[in-house]
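A reminder from the course coordinator: this example appears on the midterm review sheet, so study it carefully.

Given structure:
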């Protein structure tokens, strides 16, 4: 073994805590384990041309509507640095 975990089962068996009575708490006791994609790279195109794209993850306590408005406002502020006519809001 090369020291790297490869399967969901191997991750599930990681010991998080060993108790004085000999019992153990494993990852599978407190979480669902899934193996995701090998990589999360993606390409973006707009009207058949390569474009820039990014994703935004909302914090658990964030307000989605306020966040969307903040993003639109920031993009409008940065628009002067983009090629003319190229700003497209998807939020």
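Designed residues:
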């Amino acid at each position: 073994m090369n020291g790297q975990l490869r399967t969901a089962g191997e991750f599930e068996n990681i010991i998080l805590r060993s108790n004085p009575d000999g019992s153990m708490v494993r990852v599978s006791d407190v979480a669902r384990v899934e193996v995701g994609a090998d990589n999360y790279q993606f390409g973006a195109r707009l009207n058949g041309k390569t474009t820039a794209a990014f994703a935004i993850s909302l914090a658990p306590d964030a307000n989605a509507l306020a966040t969307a408005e903040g993003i639109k406002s920031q993009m409008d502020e940065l628009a002067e640095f983009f090629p003319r006519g190229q700003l497209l809001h998807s939020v």
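The longest strand covers residues 15-18. The helical segments are 8-12, 27-30, 64-78.
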